Amino acid sequence: MGWIIAIIVGGIIGWIASMIMSRDASMGIFWNIVVGVIGSFIGRFIGSLIGVGATLTEFSVPGLLMSLLGAVVLLGIVNLVQRGRVR
């Protein structure tokens, strides 16, 4: 059941991040899920470095915000690679 929730939350986080980074039109639901899940790992790593939202077993608002931050960072990196600049 945890994987299903991770996919759903990852899709929502990826969708919100794609709207923030103005990439919503170029991404489908599959890529939203991928960006959300990978962004969650990036956000949890950043959070563990600064001590915010670093627990993997509990649901928390700081954890969601760090996941969103990680997804936005991931899309920023993708923008740099694809276009040579951040939008």
From TrEMBL:
GO terms for cellular component: plasma membrane. The chain crosses the membrane at residues 6-22, 29-53, 59-81. The keyword Transmembrane helix applies. It is found in: Cell membrane. It is a multi-pass membrane protein. This is GlsB/YeaQ/YmgE family stress response membrane protein. PANTHER family: UPF0410 PROTEIN YMGE. It comes from the Bacteria. Belongs to the UPF0410 family. Keywords: Cell membrane, Membrane, Transmembrane, Transmembrane helix. It comes from Aurantiacibacter rhizosphaerae.
